[in-house]
């Protein structure tokens, strides 16, 4: 310690070690948070892709249904 205090040296050493531990773990916590955010964003992007594909399939089905109905509704006189 830089200067003597009225506090027990063991207590100040314990507090100092706790502070060093917290500061030492900060980069790992930051990277963990970053990885979790990236995984969440990738999951949302995949969910959006699936939704877009489902909507495209619905539109395709509607177009096929409309074309089939148009073909079947024609009579031989129309052709």
TrEMBL record:
Pfam families linked: RebB (PF11747)
Protein name from the UniProt record: R body protein RebB-like protein
Protein source organism: Dyella dinghuensis
